[in-house]
From TrEMBL:
UniProt-listed Gene3D superfamilies: yeast vps74-n-term truncation variant domain like (1.10.3630.10)
Top-level division of the source organism's lineage: Bacteria
InterPro entries linked to this entry: GPP34-like, GPP34-like_sf
Main location: Golgi
GO CC annotation terms, alphabetical: cytoplasm; endomembrane system
Compartment annotation: Golgi apparatus membrane
UniProt membrane topology term: Peripheral membrane protein
Protein's recorded name: GPP34 family phosphoprotein
One of the record's GO molecular function terms: phosphatidylinositol-4-phosphate binding
Keyword list, A-Z: Golgi apparatus, Lipid-binding, Membrane
Length: 208
């Protein structure tokens, strides 16, 4: 059995990697939203976050690897969407470094045309990504929703909300819409918040 990262944000980062093209297919703010939501979802599923008035609140004390819980504890009540948007870009770098330290990926920096800096990510063992994809695929098509592993359910919910085509191409999101809704309901409010944030950003871009 192939070992995979324990953290949900690390898993979602690897699921955004396209094995065929050997590169990340999502980056910047959108990937950041997915990773922030993954961190929120992990805390929610473990009971370290609860919900009051449609926003996250601290729950049972515990690990806070990305500092999200501390941010929420120090803030006035805010929506899930606010916490999905906040520090979306920094968490991409934090998760990437976590995966480098863990030996899951290599990162090479170079300059495009000798000017524009770019980081090229390579997964060291493609079987890890295949295993994560297999878990998500099984959650989408396999056993009853109540029996699906919570992180696999979350992977589907977050991939659908963040439009990660490596996991769920548009046609699969449409075909399995009911199942995705059921899996999303199991994983808490962060995934729906990602969907709303992306819709708002798209609408703002269209009106601008």
């Amino acid at each position: 059995m192939v070992e995979v990262p324990e953290s949900l944000p690390a898993r979602m980062y690897l699921l955004a990697y396209d094995l065929r093209k050997q590169r990340m297919t999502s980056g910047g703010a959108r990937l950041g939203y997915v990773l922030r939501a993954a961190a929120l979802t992990e805390l929610y599923l473990d009971g370290r976050l609860g919900e009051e008035r449609r926003g996250p609140v601290p729950g049972t004390p515990g690990d806070d690897p990305y500092g999200v819980l501390a941010q929420i504890a120090a803030s006035r009540p805010r929506s899930w969407r606010h916490w999905v948007r906040k520090d979306a870009r920094p968490i991409v770098a934090a998760v990437r470094e976590e995966l480098v330290r863990g030996g899951w990926i290599r990162v090479r920096s170079r300059r495009v045309l000798g000017v524009v800096p770019r980081r090229e990510v390579a997964v060291k063992d493609p079987r890890v990504v295949k295993s994560l994809w297999g878990g998500a695929s099984s959650a989408l098509r396999g056993r009853p929703v109540a029996h699906v592993n919570s992180y696999d359910a979350a992977a589907v919910a977050l991939a659908a909300a963040g439009e990660l085509k490596t996991v769920l191409p548009g046609r699969d999101r449409r075909r399995h819409r009911r199942r995705i809704e059921e899996l999303t309901a199991r994983t808490g409010p962060a995934a729906p918040a990602v969907k709303k944030v992306i819709r708002q950003k798209r609408a703002a871009a269209a009106s601008g």
